[in-house]
């Protein structure tokens, strides 16, 4: 055998396999998808939380709120963020419970002069379902000329909101009257004050009795 004879090296021809490119693309897409998913899951947003219960019609500012870092995804646009509240505040259009994220749909612009707060004395105990933020109708029975009887009751304020029920203390605690702080339309204030000054008997009837109380 002639060892000096030149060796002939075999050359392999490269065959293009489209499966290689497809596999490479799938790996890249999968990696990008995992990266996007992790970034989305870990993304938090700053939104407002009510520091205390806010009643319908109550005006509040950033001082009445706390900031929470939460994961909401695309739902973040439904809630108030730190840059959303103007310096003069906003108004709650429905009750917002303490600790609740504040939805944009639950607030409105401040409207000066629309409502006022009054404290009324109602005859007898109030219904047990009446509590803070309850919607009630205020009824009035005018005193007769003799002062010993009362006329038929009429609606004094059709849509009032209970701010608080003032529990009687001391000697008056055993009486049959209760004091209730109400938020009423400003246009009804004069009628309410007149009824109280003339000794009318006032009563409240709940408009939004909970199902559990029925």
Q: Structural class of the secondary structure composition? A: alpha+beta
Give the tally of β-strands.
10
The biggest sheet amounts to: 5 strands, antiparallel
Physical arrangement of strands within the biggest beta sheet: 6-9-8-7-10
Average of pLDDT? 78
Radius of gyration of CA atoms, rounded to a whole number: 35 Å
Beta-strand fraction estimate = 25-35%
Q: How many angstroms does the end-to-end distance come to?
A: 111 Å
Quaternary organization: single chain
Question: What is the overall silhouette?
Answer: rod-shaped
- Helix tally equals 2
The percent range for helix content is 10-25%
Output the helix-strand order.
HEEEEEEEEEHE
Uncertain ranges: 210-214
Description of the structure:
This protein is α+β, with helices and mostly antiparallel strands and 214 residues long. Helix content is 16%, strand content 29%. It has two helices and ten strands. The longest helix has 25 residues, at 18-42. Mean pLDDT is 78; it is low at 210-214.
């Amino acid at each position: 055998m002639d060892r000096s004879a030149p060796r002939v090296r075999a050359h392999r021809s490269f065959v293009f396999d489209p499966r290689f490119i497809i596999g490479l693309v799938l790996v890249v897409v999968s990696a990008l998808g995992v990266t996007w998913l992790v970034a989305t899951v870990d993304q938090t947003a700053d939104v407002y939380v009510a520091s205390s219960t806010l009643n319908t019609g109550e005006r509040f500012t950033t001082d009445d709120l706390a900031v929470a870092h939460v994961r909401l995804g695309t739902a973040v646009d439904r809630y108030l963020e730190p840059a959303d509240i103007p310096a003069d505040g906003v108004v709650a259009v429905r009750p917002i419970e303490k600790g609740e994220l504040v939805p944009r749909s639950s607030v409105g612009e401040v409207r000066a002069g629309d409502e006022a707060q009054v404290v009324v004395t109602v005859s007898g105990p109030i219904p047990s379902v009446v509590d803070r933020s309850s919607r009630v109708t205020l009824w009035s029975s005018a005193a007769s000329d003799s002062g010993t009887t009362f006329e038929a009751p009429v609606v004094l304020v059709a849509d009032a909101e209970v701010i608080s029920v003032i529990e009687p203390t001391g000697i008056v605690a055993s009486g049959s009257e209760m004091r209730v702080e109400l938020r009423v339309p400003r246009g009804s204030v004069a009628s309410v004050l007149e009824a109280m000054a003339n000794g009318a008997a006032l009563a409240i009837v709940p408009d939004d009795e909970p199902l559990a109380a029925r």
